Amino acid sequence: MTAVDLRLVATFHWNESLGNRLRYLREAKGFSRKALSTETQKTGKAVSESYIQQLETPHLFAGKERRGESLTVSKDVLTRICEAMNIDVTDLLPSAKLFLPPS
To answer: Which is it for the CA torsion 64, 67, 72, 73, positive or negative?
Structure first.
């Protein structure tokens, strides 16, 4: 597997497994969806409670013709969610080989 500089990533493929991981981490940190949404406001731009729900349960929001396909989510949205939970993006995406080189 090749490591990828996180600065070069714009979007991630998103699926049920990642949705389950997001829900697990959110609950482990003691956040409701609403509380996490409120916390993301502190990062400068809120992620709505309904969008967090959509990320956690993508199968409920994909149209019938798209079920089974992965969706995409922006790095900026995932970064805001992870910052709000005080975790690194690599904690959410453990199988990805991502790194952020020192400045």
So the answer is: positive
